[in-house]
Amino acid sequence: MHEETLTAHLPLTVPRRASTLQALARRLVLDKLARLQSGQLRVSEADRQWQFGAGEPLLQVEVRNPAFWPALAFGGTVGAGESFMAGDWDCEDLTGLVCLLLRNRPAMMDMEGGIARLSAPLRALLHRARRNDRAGSRRNIAAHYDLGNDFYRLWLDETLMYSSAVFERPDMTLAEASTAKLERICRKLALKPGDEVLEIGTGWGGFALHAAGRHGCRVTSLTLSREQLELARERVAAAGLADRVEVRLCDYRDQQGQFDKLVSIEMVEAVGAEHLETYFRQCGRLLKPAGAMLLQAITIADQRYEAALKEVDFIQKHIFPGGFLPSVTALASAMTRACDLRTVHLEDIGPHYAETLARWRDNFLGRLDAVRGLGFDTRFIRMWHFYLSYCEGGFRERDLGTVQMLLAKPGWRDPVPLGGPLGPLGLGAAP
Length: 431
Fold this sequence. Notes:
The protein has 18 helices and 11 strands. About 45% of the residues lie in helices and about 20% in strands. By secondary structure, it is an alpha/beta fold. It has 2 domains: about 1-125, Nonspecific Lipid-transfer Protein, Chain A (2-Layer Sandwich); about 130-425, 3-Layer(aba) Sandwich (Rossmann fold), CATH 3.40.50.
């Protein structure tokens, strides 16, 4: 139903004969898809149809414009995403398609090679221009988070958390799972009344409200987004917590003082690989000798980290300018070189992000009329549909991970009161 709503607003395309270039690109793409082994993919174009692979599931792609073929052949997954934005192709189960391709990584990697690499240098040049110095960080954050608070309110839950939830029970609502994630963080840090807590990356104030309201902490929270700053301050005032929460428009590099605890929830991805040591050095400086830090980060496999640094994917180009994904080893190594923090506990919550993204996607696609009412066009909507599905598939196939790392100064002596272990696939607490 959501897909029909989405495609109904696309301009109708009349099937036309492919150009020589498009025909060549089609042959190249079909030859590579012939290597699929796990699952089946059926591709249709006008009155033609091709089928690849074996077994379940069976996914279907409809090519609506032959421009799709050179976009994929010459641009790889970035080109595929841009072609989807243009309405050149559709798939009823976009997340399932991502999962299928990831299960067939050799074929997918081959899709990124060859002539598809011709466009990579230009993307890399653009990405380097979005470096995360102080001015660049402000621009990059604004490009994503200043789309408008009303936009994010449409599809986030009432906590306005824009990070992985934790589904401790399979029947949890998204809001309940978001709150469970916040409480899990607070327990790991052993937060107590009177603790001075620094948060790097405010979002819309969800953590600050939870920590101050339920645990009696004093929270200083930093953001570079003016839109988030305004709403977070409004929410703090409405909750009667202005005496315990200060939200500041401030780069983490400029913050002064020392704190008992530090929290950074999915902000490190905006730091930039070249600034990781700076980030951890500053975190170490901002903590008291017995302090601790909880870092929640989206991660990439250690084995793929170095190669990923040289690439620019769809998310970096269109969704999070200046973003990058660290590996666990990259985080730990940068921390070790930069400061005296050490890892006390690490928990992978990656499958929870897949479920979180599925909820966001359903909410988003269920509110398309409202999204359009805010002035966003079909190309933007399809871009966000691709983004949410692309990421969901990555987490479902464990191509991406999400970790909570508890990091401590040498003087930290508090116990780590953790919740129960997470169940299979991350859904449901262990008995």
